[in-house]
Amino acid sequence: AGAKEDAFNVLDLAEYTKNRPWWRKVFGPSSGSSAEKYNVATQLVIGGVTGWCTGFIFQKVGKLAATAVGGGFFLLQVANHTGYIKVDWKMVERDVNKAKQQLKLHSSGNKMSPEVKSRVDEVIIFLKKNVILTGGFAGGFLLGMAS
């Protein structure tokens, strides 16, 4: 009996997305700027609203994170003072100094990997093509942080 082999088309998503900038996924298949799709007022409103939402959320999460870190540090100090835990401060100092040395070594090279550099270049191109949208986002973000 002749077994019929089905032909399948395989799509490797990793390869597919390597050659497609992320903004094409967000703003559609056209490679142009969003200025070709929306007028100036619409771009400012979209940028402003998304920026305000992002700034507002960033502010709330930032307060929550600062409270959690500060509260955790406070509880650690209370537990150390009351004798529930003992902190080896010499070990902490040694580890902090080791981390400082590693940061100095990594920052002295100051070389980005090609993949990171290409992503940064994509973002810069997007920002240049969408100055109005970016400006609206920045203004909205600052208003969101202030509210």
From TrEMBL:
A Pfam family matched in the record: FUN14
Signal peptide limits: none
Keyword hit for tRNA processing: no
InterPro entries with a match to the protein in the record: FUN14
Compartment(s) of residence: Mitochondrion outer membrane; Nucleus
Keyword tags: Membrane, Mitochondrion, Mitochondrion outer membrane, Nucleus, Phosphoprotein, Transcription, Transcription regulation, Transmembrane, Transmembrane helix
Topology class, membrane: Multi-pass membrane protein
Free-text function comment from the UniProt entry: Binds directly and specifically 1,2-Diacyl-sn-glycero-3-phospho-(1'-myo-inositol-3',4',5'-bisphosphate) (PIP3) leading to the recruitment of PIP3 to mitochondria and may play a role in the regulation of the platelet activation via AKT/GSK3B/cGMP signaling pathways. May act as transcription factor that regulates SREBP1 (isoform SREBP-1C) expression in order to modulate triglyceride (TG) homeostasis in hepatocytes.
Protein name: FUN14 domain-containing protein 2
Species name: Aegotheles bennettii
Gene: Fundc2
